[in-house]
């Protein structure tokens, strides 16, 4: 992982400005830290340096993971663990109490199953479209052309926008008197309430999330494309190989490790979809764009009758899926590194 | 004509057009339109008055009624184009509107009032930026406060992230101690635990620490980023150990070695992490949404969401504040694009 080797040796002047107050603080810590070093010895300093990070990490990540597991076995409305009663697998049973898993309406927690159905549909469509669009964009950006930096920026800029901003921009365009309806009416079509119709709401949730993340994945794929040796293409051209054939025989196989990383990364992110969709549709109309993260958030926090046990159980299930996907991703990136393709 | 088209379609190397060339240009054009169009539309819309915004079909540029100072009237009066019976048009200033009739005067002759049915007059408009969209929410609503909160959260979280992550990375890259692999393993393993999975217990922990509804409750859970530790450690591994040994010979303390030798050498990696941290914290939404309940504590993202979720959405304010919330990100992107893109391309982190 040669993260910053390209940028090495040109530390930005920004860091110099930031360094001045840092110097003061760090300098002031010289004396107390020397005392600590005398107390713990050179060998103990590793643990000392590790301590602040691991303390914060332990309190805000490790303990919550443990609590999450514990809470998923308790019930009741109380917030604190001591006041809650242990119910065993009751919460999981509630989540899985279902007549027919393909029909959310037959389930006790119908919203949960509706959210799973929606999320699966979203993930399948969004990841497919996203990866194909990112691949197309990377291929186009990899061509020899003028002002490539500008074009890269055009596709990449939305990545930096916050999900709230992304949601608001599109909500504004898609509203009843919005830009899209104006254009359609101009061409003689009827106005559509884009976010109030089940299928359209899902379409736009997918479209907007592809719009927002396309540049990120295109950039990873572009780096992969640029790592493919030029002489391979030159050799193919000498042999008079057509462009399509070159793509199938050279580009795609050599890009495959990168593509695998992109697919798994996109999968992991898509399963957790929340912010943009929440701002754009709020899960509606009805529950047609309710996704799992929003279900957890609403069950645990937004409802008047907050059900932390049920929310914990649902998040544990989601965690299991995500850990599985992440293992896939680690395997994919290991393969990418092993094959020396950056 | 054919000479012109030959010239326009001429390509470097004298080769002809391949269908993939056409496809590439179509893709770029569509990309420019789809990716940049919405942002341009947002920016244009944010300068429109409420009346201009509610128009359908919308106007492309922000338009507002032209105003004119008329002697005898304190405030400037809006100008209207009035169609007269003989078919000619004249521009009049409206004094007031009573029911379906408007009372207008000629700016040149402010004494005589002309009564016209309101559907016989069209506002005389010009391109004008409604800057009030930007200034009013900052004064009347809590947006200035949201801003300060967001800046506070972003700056504090980034500073703490840089310090604790770099200390941990220093320990993990330059010290041999028992359990080092175990710690590294735990950090790597939690790369997999997304916030959305632990929001429930995290809320309880933050509640227990009396941090609920405080900005520190937003900041602290985010600062010990495993990605940051990992990124910095990988970089610090490339710093030669001889440098550190030499400093120890010169009786430098470990703390001095950390901040006077290792930190400056790791500046490029720190810069990358700083940029990402600023982006992450500025854009955070789910966690602040859960932790913050009083309006005075909202960050910009939570405030924007709340403001746009109200029954009567005041779009002219929402749009303007959205633009403002983009500005810092846009500035960072403009100046530090190279760091961001090379950081993402090489690590796949976001």
Automatic annotation (TrEMBL), chain A:
The chain crosses the membrane at residues 42-67, 120-141, 153-173, 201-225, 246-268, 310-332. GO terms for biological process: transmembrane transport. GO terms for cellular component: plasma membrane. It is found in: Cell membrane. It is a multi-pass membrane protein. The keyword Cytoplasm does not apply. This is Sugar ABC transporter permease. It comes from Microvirga alba. SUPFAM superfamilies: MetI-like. PROSITE patterns: ABC_TM1. Residues 116-329 form the ABC transmembrane type-1 domain. Keywords: Cell membrane, Membrane, Transmembrane, Transmembrane helix, Transport. Pfam families: BPD_transp_1. Belongs to the binding-protein-dependent transport system permease family. The keyword Heme does not apply. InterPro entries: ABC_transporter_permease, MetI-like, MetI-like_sf.
TrEMBL record, chain B:
One of its GO terms (cellular component) is plasma membrane. It comes from the Bacteria. The keyword 4Fe-4S does not apply. It is a multi-pass membrane protein. The keyword Membrane applies. Its main location: membrane. PANTHER family: ABC TRANSPORTER PERMEASE PROTEIN MG189-RELATED, ABC TRANSPORTER PERMEASE PROTEIN MG189-RELATED-RELATED. This is Carbohydrate ABC transporter permease.
């Amino acid at each position: 992982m040669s993260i910053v080797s390209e940028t090495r040796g040109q530390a930005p002047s920004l860091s110099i400005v930031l360094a001045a107050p840092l110097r003061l603080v760090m300098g002031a810590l010289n004396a107390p830290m020397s005392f600590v070093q005398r107390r713990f010895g050179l060998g103990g300093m590793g643990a000392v340096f590790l301590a602040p990070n691991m303390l914060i990490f332990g309190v805000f990540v490790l303990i919550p993971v443990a609590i999450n597991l514990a809470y998923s076995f308790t019930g009741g409305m109380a917030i604190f663990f001591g006041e809650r009663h242990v119910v065993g697998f009751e919460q999981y049973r509630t989540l899985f109490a279902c007549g027919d898993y393909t029909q959310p309406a037959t389930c006790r927690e119908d919203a949960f199953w509706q959210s799973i159905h929606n999320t699966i549909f979203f993930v399948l469509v969004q990841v497919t479209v996203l990866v194909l669009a990112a691949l197309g964009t990377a291929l186009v950006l990899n061509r020899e052309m003028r002002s490539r930096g500008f074009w890269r920026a055009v596709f990449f800029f939305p990545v930096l926008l916050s999900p709230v901003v992304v949601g608001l921009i599109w909500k504004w365009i898609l509203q009843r008197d919005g830009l899209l309806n104006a254009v359609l009416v101009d061409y003689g079509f009827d106005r559509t309430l884009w976010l109030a119709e089940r299928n359209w709401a899902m379409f736009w949730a997918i479209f907007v999330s592809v719009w927002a993340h396309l540049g990120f994945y295109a950039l990873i794929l572009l780096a992969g494309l640029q790592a493919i040796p030029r002489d391979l293409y030159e050799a193919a051209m000498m042999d008079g190989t057509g462009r399509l054939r070159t793509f199938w025989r050279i580009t795609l196989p050599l890009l495959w490790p990168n593509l695998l990383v992109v697919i798994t990364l996109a999968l992991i992110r898509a399963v957790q979809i929340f912010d943009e969709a929440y701002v754009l549709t709020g899960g509606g109309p009805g529950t047609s764009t309710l996704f799992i993260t929003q279900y957890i958030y609403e069950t645990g926090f937004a409802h008047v009758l907050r059900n932390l046990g049920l929310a914990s159980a649902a998040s544990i299930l989601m965690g299991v899926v995500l850990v599985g996907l992440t293992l896939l991703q680690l395997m994919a990136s290991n393969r990418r590194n092993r094959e020396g393709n950056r | 004509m054919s000479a012109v088209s030959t010239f326009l379609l001429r390509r470097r190397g004298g080769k002809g057009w391949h269908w993939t060339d056409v496809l590439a240009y179509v893709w770029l054009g569509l990309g420019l339109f789809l990716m940049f169009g919405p942002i341009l539309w947002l920016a244009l819309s944010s300068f429109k008055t409420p009346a201009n915004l509610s128009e359908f079909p919308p106007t492309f540029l922000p338009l507002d009624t032209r105003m004119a100072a008329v002697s005898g009237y304190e405030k400037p009066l809006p100008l209207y184009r009035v169609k007269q019976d003989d078919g000619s048009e004249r521009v009049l200033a409206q004094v007031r509107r009573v029911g379906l009739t408007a009372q207008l005067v000629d700016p040149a002759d402010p004494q005589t009032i002309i009564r016209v049915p309101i559907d016989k007059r069209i506002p005389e408009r010009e391109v004008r930026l409604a800057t009030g969209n930007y200034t009013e929410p900052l004064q009347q609503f809590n947006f200035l406060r949201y801003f300060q909160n967001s800046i506070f959260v972003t700056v504090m979280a980034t500073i703490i992230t840089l310090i604790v992550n770099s200390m941990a990375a220093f320990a993990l890259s330059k010290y041999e101690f028992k359990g080092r692999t175990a710690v590294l393993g735990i950090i790597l393993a939690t790369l997999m635990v997304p916030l959305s999975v632990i929001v429930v217990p995290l809320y309880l922990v933050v509640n227990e620490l009396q941090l609920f509804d405080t900005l520190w409750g937003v900041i602290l859970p985010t600062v010990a980023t495993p990605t940051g530790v990992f990124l910095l450690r990988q970089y610090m591994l490339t710093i030669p150990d001889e440098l550190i040994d030499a400093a120890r010979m010169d009786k430098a303390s470990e703390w001095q070695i950390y901040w006077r030798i290792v930190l400056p050498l790791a500046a490029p990696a720190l810069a990358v992490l700083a940029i990402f941290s600023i982006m992450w914290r500025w854009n955070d939404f789910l966690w602040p949404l859960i932790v913050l309940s009083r309006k005075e504590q909202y960050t910009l993202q939570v405030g924007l969401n709340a403001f746009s979720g109200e029954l009567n959405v005041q779009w002219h304010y929402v749009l303007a504040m959205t633009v403002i919330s983009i500005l810092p990100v846009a500035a960072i992107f403009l100046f530090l694009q190279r760091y961001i893109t090379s950081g993402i391309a090489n690590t796949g982190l976001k």
